[in-house]
C-alpha cells in the first residue's frame, strides 16, 4: 500500500485489508486483537461501515503498522493542489488561512 492517498472511509478499509493480508491475519484474528467483531472488520474493509469508530480505526492502523505520517509518502505523490478531503496528507486548507 505504498503511496496510497487515503481520502475516504473505503480507502481506510482497503488499507487495513491489504495490511492484514500482508501479515497473514484473518478478519477474526484482527477483530480479537481490536476488541471488535469479524463482521465489523468485514464491513469496514469493504466500505460498508458508514461511521467506524476513529479509535478502532487508529488501533487497527497501529496494530497492522500502517504508517499515516505524511513524510512516509514519496514526494512525487504529494500535491499541495490535490483536494484530499478530511483525510489530507498535509494541513487541511481551512487551517492554512487565506493566501495572498
UniProtKB/TrEMBL annotation:
Positions of the UniProt region annotated as Disordered: 71-100
Q: Which residues form the HTH cro/C1-type domain?
A: 16-73
Which SMART domains would you find in this protein's record? HTH_XRE (SM00530)
| Full protein name | XRE family transcriptional regulator
Q: Which organism is it from?
A: Bradyrhizobium zhanjiangense
- Taxonomic classification: Bacteria, Pseudomonadati, Pseudomonadota, Alphaproteobacteria, Hyphomicrobiales
Amino acid at each position: 500500500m505504498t503511496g496510497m492517498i487515503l481520502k475516504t472511509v473505503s480507502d481506510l478499509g482497503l488499507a487495513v485489508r491489504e495490511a492484514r493480508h500482508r501479515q497473514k491475519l484473518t478478519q477474526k484474528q484482527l477483530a480479537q486483537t481490536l476488541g471488535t467483531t469479524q463482521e465489523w472488520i468485514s464491513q469496514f474493509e469493504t466500505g460498508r461501515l458508514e461511521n467506524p469508530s476513529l479509535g478502532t480505526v487508529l488501533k487497527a492502523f497501529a496494530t497492522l503498522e500502517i504508517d499515516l505520517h505524511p513524510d512516509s509518502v514519496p514526494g512525487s505523490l504529494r500535491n499541495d493542489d490535490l483536494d484530499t478531503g478530511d483525510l489530507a496528507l498535509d494541513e487541511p486548507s481551512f487551517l492554512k488561512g487565506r493566501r495572498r
